[in-house]
Task: inverse folding
């Protein structure tokens, strides 16, 4: 899906076009966002800002996504763009998917964030246990022709990620971005259960962590917090090229 198979994972309020451009020498894909795109998720984002979290909260989130993707195009940034979105409702997901399709960007539905404010309105991690609604988001987004995936989290009580992955694949998803938490072996379970492109996330810092995820069957890895650290990115880039592209 992208080369090298190293992605920059979204960091709320930080992952914009400039951030993606800075990492383009090392990564093959950058997930901008996460961006709250409906009224409920935006209300939650305002509460997060009130307690000093950094969040994207533009007046018009759809126009913001369009501008960010245009910025990468105008400078011919050599990286596959993607956008991570939060929403408590389906239609805005379809609207952003249309923008992503126009810019050949991936759409990533956020079923990962676990802040209380987001979960209270039905965003993020709560979607993992609401399989029908999450699958509906995927169906709505893929109906636009966009390439669609979901970011998920392991170790959520009552959620079997391999089973959920199969449902999302049937709904039209192309990739699954997995925060493995402390259960790295879940990558193998998902890879065995589906044909989804699996991006492994959490603790990717060096050749050893890349090797572990590759041995479990990951198609790519992603770097989160150190995504603005060129020392870490260069180290992981070298490991990814050696282990996934050699």
Result:
């Amino acid at each position: 899906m992208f080369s090298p198979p190293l992605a920059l994972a979204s960091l709320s309020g930080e992952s914009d076009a400039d951030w993606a451009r800075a990492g383009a020498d090392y990564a093959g894909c950058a997930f901008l966002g996460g961006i709250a795109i409906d009224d409920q998720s935006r209300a939650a984002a305002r509460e997060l800002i009130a307690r000093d979290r950094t969040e994207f909260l533009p007046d018009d989130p759809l126009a913001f996504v369009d501008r960010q993707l245009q910025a990468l195009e105008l400078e011919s940034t050599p990286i596959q763009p993607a956008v991570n979105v939060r929403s408590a409702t389906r239609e805005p997901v379809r609207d952003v998917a249309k923008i992503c399709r126009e810019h050949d960007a991936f759409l990533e539905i956020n079923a990962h964030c676990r802040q209380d404010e987001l979960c209270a309105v039905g965003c993020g991690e709560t979607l993992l246990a609401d399989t029908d609604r999450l699958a509906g988001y995927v169906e709505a987004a893929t109906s636009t022709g966009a390439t669609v995936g979901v970011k998920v989290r392991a170790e959520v009580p009552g959620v079997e990620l391999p089973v959920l992955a199969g449902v999302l694949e049937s709904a039209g998803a192309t990739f699954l971005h997995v925060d493995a938490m402390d259960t790295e072996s879940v990558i193998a379970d998902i890879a065995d259960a589906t044909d989804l492109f699996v991006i492994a996330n959490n603790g990717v810092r060096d050749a050893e962590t890349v090797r572990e995820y590759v041995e479990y069957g990951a198609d790519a890895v992603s770097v989160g917090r150190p995504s603005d650290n060129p020392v870490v990115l260069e180290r992981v880039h070298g490991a990814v090229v050696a282990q996934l592209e050699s």
